[in-house]
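Progress against Task 2.4 (sequence-to-structure conversion) is shown through the following example record, which the project officer requested during the mid-term review.
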Amino acid sequence: MEAPKKPTVHSMKRRSFVHEYSYRGFYHITISVAADLRQPLGRVCGNIDKADGEAAAPHVELSPIGQMVEWELLHSIKRHYPMVEVDTYIIMPEHLHILFHVTRDIFNNARKRTHLGRVIAGFKQGCNRRYWEMTGLIPTAKESQAIKSPGAIGADTAAQPNPADRPATSQAATTAPQLAPAAPYSACPTALGDSIAEHRPASSPAPLPSLFETGYCDVIPVDEAQLATQRAYIRNNPRSRLLRTSNRSLLMPRRGGIDTAVSLPAMCGFLQRVCPSHQFTPTIWQELQGHFLMEDSHITCDSYGDRSLLERRLLPVVCHRQDAARFNEQKTRSLEAAARGAILVSARIAKGEQEISDAALASGYSTVRIIDNGFPERYHPSATITDACAAGHLLLLSPWRYQFRRKDDAIHVPFCKAMNCIAQALCRTADDWWKADIPRN
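Structure tokens generated for the chain above:
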């Protein structure tokens, strides 16, 4: 009997199978610090009320190790790969974002075409070498030279380098270093110029701990708009971090606790009524059942933002093709209701739904969005969404478990109809409410 297959665990660290990573272009790379190091690169500080460019604006104060990583990033890569430029970057306490601009195809010193991953591996190896030196796990270059020079140091003292010649060590090799913020990192090209080249520590009974997690995440901007978005996202990281830490109840995913009052049989019946039979098949229904979040036999929702919006009057925004000729009327009535305090709830699937929802938010009205995927443990929406949620103007809801999905993966009609059903269920109102006279409060 065959053993059951393990479920696929999707990773954002997988590379695109249709892209050659030695080609010129822009690459947004995210590298995470090893999980047990607890923010060794610095700390986020500043005031979210201060504008970018002001001294007190949100920023990262780098630790000595963070300063070392920054030096390696800005100097060592360019020495070995002059075609790989750092366009934009931010070093956060436990990860770093880098927007690389590869100005021409990547070749190494031996004139062999080279994957960008090799460049990143070399950068990480160089950082590891300096990290081990700074934490006392291996001798510094100065100490190694002293040990190799006969007569320069006695045999009895060669095994124990002078502690004054190196940075303070950690308490244990496997724990996070105790950083001394008063001791800035200093480096010069002669000391670190070759650090991106592959280094291997001297033989030891166990592998030395790495500063970084294995692998990296990448995003490849495909046009100028996406490139601008990636640059803004990178620069906004410190401000977003302060926003989340000061508004934890609003800017952290909250699990369950929102009763839609929709059972699976009720959802199945709804989809049978609104979907053609060739679109809503037993296979699709089985797939949908596996994605719904359930609580007490009802579909529930996770959230991101201000849940108190659900305590106000809710109205669904669903645009149907048969009502296309009356779209302006639907939009006008929806915005009038929002002006009187109603909260518009929409999955934003049709263009009309997006237009009404965006217009409401732009006018300062609060809205609720049903999104088409669940929230991962680390959820970082755009700066626009983050700001709107922090201000209490936007609530994101998801009735789905999180699933890895590429941006260009299509969702089928029953999936969209199910989200429209959730919108109406939360509002306890049918989506044709705007066709009747709007009650005046």
